[in-house]
Amino acid sequence: MIYKREQINELNDYFVNLSERAGRGVYFYRICSSNAEILQFIGQYLDTARRFGVVIQGKIPNPDEKQLSYYTEIMGNTFVQDLAFLIKAIGKWLPRLNTSQRENVASSLLHTLDEMKKEGKSQDMVRNAYIKFMCWLYYKFERILHLLGQDTVPKILYEGTLSRYELDLFCILADAGCDIVCLEYEGDAGYRRTDPESKRSMIYQGKGTETFPKGFSLASLMKQKQQEDRMAVVYDKRKVLNPVTNVWMGKNQELFEESLRAPQERGDNPQAFYNLFLHIIGVPDKLTYAQELFHWKMELEERKRNFFVFEEIFSPENEEIRMAGAKNYTDLEQMVLDLALRLKSTGHESLDHQVRSAFVKQMTERDSETDGNLHRKKNEAVYLICWFNRYAGQMFKGYQPGQIGTVVYLGCCKNNYEASFLKMISRLPLDVIILSPNLERVCSLKDERLVEKRYPNSLALDAFPETAGQMSTGTAAYHAEQELNAMMYQDTGMYRNRQYTKAEAAALQTMYEEVDQLWNQELKYRPGFETIQDKVVLPVLAAKICGVKNRDAEAYWKMIRKMCTQETLVVTHPGWFQKGDAFMGETPRMIANGRIDKRKVKESKLYPYGILRDEVQDYILEKTEQLIRKKMIRGTFERGMEYRILAVALDLNKEAVRMIQQFDFTKKNPKLLVLAVNEKVFSAEDCIGMALLSMIGFDVALFVPTGYQVFEQNFNEIFWEEHQVGDYLYDLHIPALKPEENGFSQLGGFFNRIFRKG
Question: At how many degrees (to 10) do helices 553-563 and 512-519 cross?
């Protein structure tokens, strides 16, 4: 049976079942112009063809050598142009077809071959065309041929200008029972060269048509549809409420009082929820502020409002990052839609849709910090997912539709990731309130929806008063002292003891003559010293002095004695730094992706620094991680050197640890003086220790009278400045290095300890 090609009344006729069509025929149309109706039809037809047909983007490739070889192996070289032969051949080549389908395809194929014969094609040309058609039917259309003759007509969608053999093939498929649509973006002229009178297919002329939109293609349409499909999976727009943030508030109301208003008192639009997004900076009264916070919390809880406080948002842990399941992505939308499905369910379907919608909106809004940088955007997305999954249970504890919980962040956003997280949750049924009572801290949160309220007074409040017992009220005298400290030590060049807990070392570039001049100078008097917010830039010395000036060994040792102060560690031989072997069994589980897991380090039974101030512990680990990530030490991330670096950092000599604990970033810094007077090469552990202490803020001076490279082989990147000061001298004997200013008559006390053997 050969199906007749019928005319359509409207494009939707394509979607009518075969049994309901007036002539029980098929449709074969070309479309070379567009309007809204046509574009909608193409989208619907594409969906149908992907499910019950074949979509062809561009030319159908000719059978390759492998395909032709397989055809010959199965079918041989015999060809007879008659129906019986073709039915048998199709039965062998396409075994899934039933009897009726084989006969239809064979009849359609024979009809086309006969037409070619009538046109004057040679037998060899007809035979070659037959083999091409058979290969195309098997490799391109086999999956739909078994649908031929069913009520749901298989669909073919083609994009481009049909070649002669492609048109022949489509005529075979149409005759056998397929609907076909050809999209001609460049117009119909190319097709007319093959079929001048348009006998083999029809052209559709819609009303008010024009050329296809620039850039339109099946590829772009499929991408759009995939994104729409994925978006529908991510969240249902019908179930997402519109956040009405802040605008419902009275103009002269106190913010804390506004937060007490019940959700139903804020607005009555059933398609919206009414929430707060506030930043309260400073405090109205330092004496009563903590008390007011406690009573405010109690009032909210009495009204059955969930209340949750962040005092610090800790960075995601390795396991949390792994569970986020981020992959490699090619574009932002693909990434966001994929990662949105990693957000933890709240147990409420409507709220889950709201959460995913908030995530998508936050990730796709323009952000000057990360816009255009997919890697940074992925990091941001992972942070949001990790934090939401971590805190969702507490933020929405006991949640019921229509309720508005309260989330408080005490402090200020330290980075853009924290700011992004707060902006995201502000799109959820939550009052999000940032309390920044300490005016010295700078917050990175900026948003046009955010309402800010400023008060003149500053208060250092590190913990929210969760219970009455936790409230502490400062006396007037105490607060007066705090204000005096602020006036004296803020932008005055005067500094409190250990005012700063964070620092970054920056190597000073000096002349050789300046090394001993600057050695005993306080950091704050050195060029390059500055404080930036809560961090100090430390101008440190890092110098390798090669040779002996004027060959004067006596003057050489005199200068070194002068540099051996009470703040100086003196290393006279390789192996001074400990190898950290006791920690090597544990350090591999403490490092992942170049970062140290501080929690795992501190939880280790071997961890030696628990007696130090918390900020000192964090500082040592931070600088150790920095040393690892810089790959300064040779073998880092290649031979497991990163694990050795951490092991050495956890096994520093007692004297070095005490100096780090004592180190005040605005005063004199500790020193490391290394003497290399012979051919002995310093170990990797020694070099790790030197580099780490330099990054911590030690002045480091390497005296090498021989000029030998006894350190360099352990470094990818040299951290010191080299000075060639004179002739090389060999086999020098290290004399007693008696400090001239500290009152030691013998090499005893402190220096006896640092010159211990082994």
Answer: 40
Q: Which candidate, 176, 151, 142, 172, places its Cα nearest to that of 53?
A: 142
| Cα–Cα dist 758/577, whole Å | 10
Tokens of 322: 């792994």
Question: Which tokens belong to 357?
Answer: 């919608």
Calpha distance 140→67 (Å, rounded): 12
CB 581 within 8 A of CB 696: no
What is the pTM assigned to this prediction? Answer: 0.44
Average pLDDT score over residue span 227-237 = 75
Instruction: Compute the distance between CA of residue 730 and CA of residue 509 in angstroms, rounded to an integer.
Output: 28
Token duo for residue 115: 């037409």
Task: Please state, in angstroms and as integers, the Cα–Cα distance from residue 699 to each residue in 180, 528, 575, following that order.
Answer: 80, 15, 20
Q: Where is 182: in which H helix or E strand? A: strand 179-183
Q: How far is CA 413 from the centre of its chain?
A: 19
User: 73: which residues sit within 8 A by CB, 6+ positions away?
Assistant: none
Give the Cα-Cα-Cα angle 698, 701, 702 (nearest 5 degrees): 135
Task: Give the whole-angstrom CA distance, residue 667 versus residue 630.
Answer: 27
Taking CA atoms, 205 is separated from 34, 43, 181, in Å, by 9, 18, 13
Burial call 106-134: b when 16+ CB within 10 Å, e when fewer: bbbbbebbeebeeeeeeeeebbebbbbbb
Q: Which residues are CB-contacts of 553 (< 8 A; sequence separation ≥ 6)?
A: 729, 732
Q: Exposed e or buried b for every residue in 57-74, given b needs 16+ CB within 10 A? A: eeebeebeeebeeebeee
In degrees, rounded to 5, the angle at the alpha carbon of residue 84 between the alpha carbons of residues 82 and 85 is: 70
Cα 521 from Cα 297, distance rounded (Å):
52
pLDDT-derived band at 371, boundaries 50, 70, 90: low
363: pLDDT strictly greater than 50: yes
Among left, alpha and beta (phi > 0; psi -120 to 50; other), residue 697 is left
Lowest mean pLDDT: which of 157-166, 482-491, 623-632?
A: 482-491
Closest C-alpha among 417, 322, 344, 325 to residue 377:
417
Do the bridges between strand 542-546 and strand 699-704 make them parallel or antiparallel, or are there none, so unpaired?
parallel
Residue 722, C-beta contacts closer than 8 angstroms, at least 6 positions apart: 543, 544, 546
> Given this model, what pLDDT does residue 412 score?
87
DSSP, res 460 = -
Helices (H), 119-188: 123-145, 164-176
Distance CA 611, CA 617 (A): 9
Helix (H) or strand (E) holding 357, with range, is: helix 349-364
Q: Are strands 430-436 and 277-281 parallel, antiparallel or unpaired?
A: parallel
